[in-house]
Here is the input.
Amino acid sequence: MAYDFHHDHAFYLKFLSENARQSILPMAARHLRKPLDQCRVLELGCGEGGNLLPFAEAGAKCTGIDLNAHKIAEGNQIMAEWVAAGKMELFAENIFNPEIEARFTGQFDLIILKDVIEHIPDKDKALLQMRRFLNDEGLLFIGWPPWRMPFGGHQQIADSKIIRIFAWLHLLPKPWYVGVLKLAGEKKAALDELAEIHDYRVSIGLMNRLYKATGFRMVEEIHYLINPIYEYKFGLKTRRQWALIKAVPWFRDFLTTSCYYLLAKDKA
Here is the structure.
């Protein structure tokens, strides 16, 4: 089961919600200026809404947006109870659609980007749009796997079971990497996604430069040696990164399986 979680849809959605409930929601709640039941929460790249479910359960009004219309349609069925209650709305849309921009500007207390930033080509443009959507006291949560960590290339989505467990394979030069994927018999959809992640990778250093350049400041930062979601995927206990490793730029990417950043608008 450990390496098949992305191919068991119901299980995957369940542990996304549980991980958000145990690790994302508490981090955000520590710093929000209002109780959750008075907050508006947006998730970019929401899929079927798994990360939003705990926030809806806590009383927040949740909005999810994703380019994948199929996932949004499934999400509206899965989350029908919360949609009917007015606690969740899911859209298949582009955040740069002028109508969406007009509707969302200044509206949100919290925006979530969980395992999404590494899929976005124009990261600075997306972060500036997120800043636009936040209200003055709003917070932006970003969680992602640093590029050089053992599975920073998202090999776990591969068709080949060998590729899924091949740590650091993604650090090969792209032509070599794609060549190995082809030799392993990867289907086009998985191969294209893995190659895209290679192009759009995000190191810790890059993320630090990006958030400062787009007008954010750090509120809270957590580096994980053992990603919280690994409790549900592999039964491993969550562990924060050792301070000594966290303090060493570049090298820390190899041994940090996830970073959680909570950012606020820099008003300086």
Q: What stands out?
A: The beta strands are 40-44, 61-66, 88-92, 108-114, 134-144, 216-226, 239-240, 258-265. The radius of gyration is 18 Å. The first strand starts at residue 40 and ends at 44. Residues 155-200 form one domain.
